[in-house]
Amino acid sequence: MELSALQQLMDDLYGDADRQRGIAATVAWLCEELGELAQAVRKGTVDEQRHELGDVLAWLASLANQLDLSLDDAVQRFVDDPPPLSDA
Known about the structure:
With 88 residues, the chain is an all-alpha fold. It has helices at residues 3-21, 23-43, 46-66, 71-75, 77-80. Helix content is 80%, strand content 0%. The protein has a single domain, classed as Orthogonal Bundle (Helix Hairpins), CATH 1.10.287. The protein has five helices and no strands.
């Protein structure tokens, strides 16, 4: 799935609720999901890791939608001018 398609899917499924929740709450949910991903990486199964990666991507797409930003545009810098390894 392309990042733009992910953003559209998240908007179709959850956009209204996400906008009502607001940016601050979405950032909090994203941080919680990152913590769950960290735990899954340390102690979880491959299926749990995959699940948590999906959750992080979904919340990131939601945040990008609320900020009216494109994830495709956000990662384009890695194509155009990738940061050096020490800064990545």
